[in-house]
Design goal:
Layout: E1 2-5, H1 9-23, E2 31-34, H2 37-45, E3 59-64, E4 68-69, E5 75-76, H3 83-91, E6 93-101, E7 116-120, H4 125-135, E8 142-145, E9 147-148, E10 154-155, E11 163-168, H5 176-184, E12 189-192, E13 194-195, E14 201-206, E15 209-214
Parallel strand pairs: 1-2, 1-3, 3-6, 6-14
Antiparallel strand pairs: 4-5, 5-13, 7-11, 7-12, 8-11, 9-10, 14-15
Residues 6-11, 64-67, 77-83, 86 line the site of ribulose-5-phosphate.
Length: 215
């Protein structure tokens, strides 16, 4: 079985569990396709056999976290910075299961007040930041370059050598597909964090237990 391995604090539990099941012989004959360098390192340290999309272009199942989940199982992802590889791996997967806690549930994407990331090339990133903010003016959008380092003094660089522009909305995005299309059409945009129509099911953990959402 070919498994897409997600990125983030929730997906890390899945990777740990896979490592444990493999080491105790409860699971065998799997190969993992990691969605980030971080996950690749974690999986390798647990002796999970790894491969790439080049060698395994068809993935049976991907399991990953999410930043926002709406009632249609559409998602915002990428606050952990891995959106490009996540989208490539999850789009190539026959099934895509999301694992999250109930703080991630929203009635409309962009509605949490937290970031919707867009990965952009470094070249003239400010030009694209201004254009992205302008695209969603009517939603009260504010665009910020993601920073890293102890004093947040330098731009965050993705595993693919790009920058991230985080979009903060005052109001939820009305038409995610239209928004995604407009963002992707911008020269210099590499990928955006709207994962639409991709999740097969979402497993949500809350104080009262676990709920499985399916379409
Ligand atoms: O998209 C992601 C990383 O790019 C993560 O899946 C998302 O940020 C959720 O992370 P966490 O489980 O740590 O809340």
């Amino acid at each position: 079985m070919v498994l897409g391995l997600g990125t983030g604090s929730t997906a890390a539990f899945v990777v740990d569990k896979l490592g444990q099941l493999l080491s105790t012989g409860q699971l065998s004959n799997i190969v993992g396709i990691p969605t980030s360098k971080r996950t690749q390192e974690q999986a390798a340290s647990l002796n999970i056999p790894l491969s790439t999309l080049d060698l395994h272009p068809h993935i049976d199942l991907a399991i990953d976290g999410a930043d926002e989940v709406d009632p249609n199982l559409d998602l915002v992802k990428g606050r952990g910075g891995a959106l490009l590889r996540e989208k490539m791996v999850e789009a190539a997967s026959s099934s895509f299961i999301v694992v999250a806690d109930d703080s991630k549930l929203v009635s409309g994407l962009g509605g949490s007040g937290l970031a919707m990331p867009v990965e952009v090339v470094q070249f003239c990133w400010k030009y694209n930041l201004v254009r992205l903010e302008g695209l969603f003016k009517e939603l009260g959008c504010e665009a910020k370059l993601r920073l890293s380092g102890d004093g947040r003094e330098k731009p965050y660089v993705t595993d693919n050598g790009n920058y991230i522009v985080d979009l903060y909305f005052k109001n939820p995005i009305k038409d995610g597909f239209a928004a995604g299309k407009e963002i992707s059409a911008m020269e210099g945009v590499v990928e955006h964090g709207l994962f639409l129509g991709m999740a097969t099911s979402v497993i949500i953990a809350g104080k009262t237990g676990v709920e499985v959402m399916t379409k």
